[in-house]
Structures are given as C-alpha cells and as structure tokens.
Design goal:
about 450 residues; mainly alpha; about 75% helix; disordered C terminus
Length: about 450
C-alpha cells in the first residue's frame, strides 16, 4: 500500500516535470551557448527519468511493447557501436557516443510523452498546458533574438560572409530554425484561442518577437514554415469568422502574413534568398554554356541542385561512397557518425539519410518504427472518428509535425538534435492523443 502510494506520487511528479520540461528548453539551450555544463546532464537525466516512468506505468500492454522496443533498440545500438569499434578507423569514442545518445534521445522522449499524454488526457483541461508552455518557450526565443540584435551579440548563422542572419544566444542556427518552424504553429494555435481582444493584444508582441526571430535567423526552412503556418492559420480564422462570427483572428492573422512578406526584403532571409537566387541563376547559365559546347558532363552539372540543397549532395555522395565500400556488417549496422571519414566526421544534414548510413539497414528500420507506427495510428484515428477530431488543434499540431519531419528530411538537425528533436517528439505524441477516439480514453491498453 505504501509502495503503491509512493509510486503514484512519483508518477504525478514525473508528469508535472515533463510538462514543465517543455518550458525549460530555451533556457537549457542558452546554457549550452554560454558553455555552462548543464543542458547535457539535464537531458540525460530526463531520458533516464523517462525510462523509469515508462517502467512504472500501469498500462501493461503498451508498457510491454515499449520496453520490448527499447530493449531491441539498445541491442542494435550496442551492436552498431561495437562493430564500428572493430572496423572503423579512425574511431573517436566521444563523438560516436554523443551522436548515439542524441539519436536515442528523440525516440525515448517520443515514447515517454506518449505515456505522459495518455495519463494526462484523463484530466478535463489536459490540452492547454503543453500549448501554453510551447507558446512561452517560443516567446523566450523571440525576446532573446530581439535582445541579441539590439546588442549586436548574436551568433552568426553562417560562415559565408555573403549570407546574413544570426541565432541570437543559441548555439545552432539550423536547430533554432527547426525549433521556431515547428513551435510557431503551436504558438499561433494558442494565440488564436485567446478570444478576448485585450488578451490578444497583450500576447501580440510575443508573437511578433518570434516572427522577428524566424526572419532574423536567415534560413529558408524558417521562412517557409512561417508563411505556411500563417496562411493555414488565416484559413482557419476565416472559417471560424464565417461559422462562429469571431473576427479578431480573421483580421490579425492576414495582417501578420502581409507583414511577413513586407519584412522579407529588409531582413536577413531576404538577403540570403537574393544571394541563393543569384548563385542558382549563375549555375544555370554555366550549365547551359557547358551543354552548348558539348560538355554535358562537365563540372557544372548539378550546380543548381547543389544550391538548392546547400551542398548537402556533396556530403551525401561522400558517405554513399563510404557505404558502398563498407563491409557487410557496416552495411547492416551502420558506419557511425559521418561514415568512414578520414578527417572530420560530417553529417549529410538530412536526418533520414544520416540514420540510414550511420546506423545501417537494421538500425534505420528499428529507429523509424515509432514514427511509422504513430503516423499510421494518427491516420487511423482520423478515419475511425470520420474526421470528427479534425479541428484547429489537430490541423496546426499536425502542421507542426509535418514541418518537423519535412525539416528532418530536407535540412536535418531534428532527429539527432535534442534541442529541436524534443519538440517533434512532444508534438507527435500530443497529436496521437488529440486524434484518439474519446471512447477509448479510459481503456487500460489504449
């Protein structure tokens, strides 16, 4: 009885912690930028706490599958690591271990938040805490970006002098771009739910600060996400205005979208888009010239693709070559971070390809199982409920998930980056629970 009471208290404490953990993310990222040894220990301990929480959950069937999967994942990761100790040269222990931890972190957080939201969904107002904390996390990032610009202390997003943009007091511009791209969808959702105009005006400066951060970081991913989110939000707002006679969102969101387009030419992303277009056109002219001289296979072939992919194709070709030459065990279990590199282990920065080459066929299959399962389950939920759960919540959270997965595929820095991966894990688990048929909420094995 006493043990049961202690376990129940621990579970409630852990659930409260994991919801608060969402709000802690930008502060952990700030400590990483300041070289304070805090973010990594906290994330490691959070992953351990998640494992304990999963082990103590009362959902016997789901727990059995989760523990079985985690055990299989651990076995494959260890096998991959040992295989590379034997066959990979050079092999840097710290680099390989850190990369493996960062990859497993996303998976562990996804499973942990599945159980957290399953438990919290029994409460009446379970939906709002996550949205609220993401809103304020994005607000913290936006305010930091503004302060960094005002003081001129932001970390440059690019090494190239021709490109502009900074990541404020955060370590990585690419990770920040992914975070803002996903998180802004939830920020807009929370903003739209504030029906009183006075409250909206109170929160509006925070929304504008996040928009400023997106435009200032200078990446195409962030800008594309901003435009898509505001466009979708505008459509939802117009539908609500027609159906529910709520006009505030229908007026404010189109204005924010128009401001975005107006601001692009005078912000970092505008400069970078102009530079990218210039390089793209120049590469196209070189290719046309080469073809006109009968040099269809000359060095300029594919330069336009290189511009679109930000030279990721070069890293892809290098790692692909390593993979072709690797032995069978490395093809199955992967070549570790950066492949069989000679100098510096570089990622392709397209997460799914990095997963495949770094963890092999077997590792890739094991890693992608949770994403495929949740994707299948969410679609199934929508069909079973005849899209009754298809509303502003599921649309915008689904958009956040789609943008996160799209960013992972095209630009990387999500699935193996704890700072941004945590948001995608939270949003996938949250979307799963949002779309779950309500009649199954109280079932022990759902």
């Amino acid at each position: 009885m006493f043990m049961g009471s202690n376990t129940s208290q621990f579970m409630k404490w852990a659930e409260a912690y994991f919801i608060l953990y969402i709000l802690l993310q930008p502060f952990l990222d700030l400590t990483a930028f300041l070289s304070l040894p805090l973010s990594e220990p906290v994330r490691v301990l959070s992953m351990v706490l998640g494992a304990v929480y999963i082990a103590l959950t009362q959902n016997a069937k789901a727990k059995k599958y989760a523990i079985g999967y985690i055990g299989l994942l651990a076995l494959v990761m260890v096998a991959s690591f040992v295989n590379n100790v034997i066959f990979k040269d050079p092999f840097t222990l710290s680099i390989e271990l850190v990369y493996m931890f960062k990859t497993v972190y996303f998976i562990m957080m996804l499973i942990t938040y599945y159980f957290v939201f399953r438990s919290l969904s029994r409460q009446t107002h379970w939906k709002m805490p996550m949205q609220r904390y993401v809103f304020f996390s994005m607000s913290v990032i936006g305010v930091v970006m503004v302060l960094a610009s005002l003081t001129g202390t932001g970390k440059s997003s690019y090494e190239a002098l021709a490109k502009e943009g900074h990541s404020g007091w955060f370590f990585s511009g690419n990770e920040l771009s992914a975070i803002l791209g996903m998180g802004f969808a939830v920020m807009i959702l929370y903003f739209m739910k504030k029906y009183e105009l006075k409250t909206k005006l109170y929160f509006l400066p925070l929304v504008l600060s996040a928009m400023y951060g997106i435009l200032t970081v200078g990446t195409k991913v962030a800008l594309g996400s901003l435009v898509v989110i505001l466009a979708v939000g505008t459509l939802i707002a117009w539908f609500d205005a027609w159906k529910k006679k709520q006009w505030a969102n229908a007026i404010i969101l189109p204005i924010l979208l128009a401001l975005t387009f107006a601001a692009v030419p005078v912000t970092a992303i505008g400069n970078n888009l102009g530079f990218a277009m210039e390089q793209f056109n120049k590469a196209g002219q070189l290719e046309e010239g080469a073809e006109g001289e009968g040099e269809g296979t000359g060095p300029t072939r594919g330069d336009q693709a290189k511009e679109l992919l930000s030279n990721r194709n070069e890293f892809f070709n290098k790692v692909e070559g390593d993979y072709v030459q690797a032995n069978v065990s490395q093809k199955v279990l992967g070549m570790g971070r950066g492949g069989n590199y000679e100098d510096v282990p570089k990622l392709i920065e397209m997460d799914f390809f990095d997963w495949f080459f770094n963890f092999g066929v077997l590792g890739f299959i094991i890693l992608i199982i949770p994403i495929l399962y949740f994707g299948y389950a969410i679609i199934k939920h929508l069909i079973v409920t005849r899209f009754q759960t298809f509303n502003s919540d599921t649309i915008l959270i689904g958009l956040a998930v789609g943008l996160g997965l799209g960013t992972a595929f095209m630009a990387g820095h999500v699935l193996s980056s704890p700072a941004s991966g945590i948001y995608l894990a939270v949003f996938i688990a949250y979307l799963y629970r949002l779309t779950k048929p309500k009649k199954h909420e109280a079932e022990p094995n759902s």
